[in-house]
């Protein structure tokens, strides 16, 4: 496997400079180029919660566009965005800990809700895919992000 460069390419540097100047065309290119990757990581990290993943994706790009002038060119933009989405997801999970969701309550407290079926649907189909997904979700947030970056996003160890 070829090693991916760890420095921003000339094309990336030009886009970053455009974002620093607040150019909508540069911001659009950055968003279009990286939104699916950022959203995919957020979706996996937040266990399939599409609305939360969309919020995290939006937050990542807003933060980047607001702070583009502070971007260090010793890393690739995608690496910065992955770190940013990890932070956004960790923040979301911390916010969630403050609340108890019905699905997180013991079934005895809400017997009218079929929690088992909901969990099965949320975690995916039975079999190897479901077991793999459950194993990934059981990891700590930091380890989960490493696994997602390596095996779902195919990043090199240096990029991670």
Quaternary organisation of the protein chains: single chain
Task: Bin the strand percentage.
Answer: under 5%
Distance between the termini: 15 Å
Q: How large, in whole angstroms, is the Cα Rg?
A: 18 Å
* Main sheet attributes: strand count, strand direction, barrel closure: none
Structural class: mainly alpha
- Number-wise, the strands total 0
SSE string: HHHHHHH
Uncertain spans, ≥5 residues at pLDDT below 50? 108-126
Mean pLDDT: 76
| 3D shape | globular
Number of helices: 7
> What share of the residues lie within helices?
55-70%
Secondary structure: elements and pairs:
Blueprint: H1 10-20, H2 24-45, H3 50-67, H4 77-97, H5 115-123, H6 128-138, H7 141-152
Helix pairs in contact: 1-2, 2-3, 2-4, 3-4
């Amino acid at each position: 496997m070829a090693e991916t460069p760890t420095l921003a390419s000339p094309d990336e540097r030009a886009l970053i400079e455009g974002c620093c100047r607040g150019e909508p065309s540069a911001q659009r290119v950055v968003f279009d180029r990286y939104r699916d990757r950022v959203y995919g990581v957020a979706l996996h990290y937040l266990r399939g919660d599409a609305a939360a993943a969309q919020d995290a994706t939006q937050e990542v790009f807003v933060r980047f566009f607001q702070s583009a002038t502070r971007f260090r060119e010793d890393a690739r933009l995608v690496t910065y965005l992955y770190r940013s989405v990890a932070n956004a997801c960790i923040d979301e999970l911390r916010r969630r800990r403050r609340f108890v969701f019905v699905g997180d309550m013991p079934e005895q407290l809400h017997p009218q809700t079929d929690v088992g079926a909901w969990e099965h649907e949320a975690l995916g189909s039975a079999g190897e895919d479901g077991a793999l997904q459950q194993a990934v979700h059981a990891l700590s947030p930091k380890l989960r992000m490493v696994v997602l970056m390596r095996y779902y996003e195919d990043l090199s160890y240096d990029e991670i």
